[in-house]
């Protein structure tokens, strides 16, 4: 199984509510075997980068597309639109 990573950068006005919503996303991800991290910009406390990491085989539903995770990600969009990038683990060379 290959690891997958979703990174999302967003600017937030309501930090307290956003972080409460982030905790719900982290719980949805971790209960399904994934990992979730969040960082704030050193020079701007309203800017955040979020990471969701999971293992994915060739088939099946991606963790980020499972309903609880998808719904929690949608909730975060209420606090500010996110710029997302998806990454995949390189094959061993």
Structural commentary:
- The protein contains 2 helices and 4 strands; from the N terminus they run βαββαβ.
- It has helices at residues 15-30, 67-77; strands spanning 2-11, 35-41, 44-56, 83-88.
- The protein has a 4-stranded antiparallel beta sheet, with helices on one face.
- Strand 2 and strand 3 form a beta hairpin.
- The radius of gyration is 14 Å and the shape is globular.
- The two termini are 16 Å apart.
- The mean pLDDT is 94.
Round the mean pLDDT to the nearest integer and report it: 94
Tell me the domain tally.
Answer: 1
What's the order of the H and E elements? EHEEHE
CATH class: Alpha Beta
Give the second-level CATH assignment, the architecture. 2-Layer Sandwich
Structural class: alpha+beta
Major sheet attributes? 4 strands, antiparallel
Range of helix content = 25-40%
Kindly estimate the percentage of residues that lie in beta strands according to DSSP.
35-45%
What is the CATH topology classification name?
Answer: Alpha-Beta Plaits
- Poorly predicted runs of 5 or more residues: none
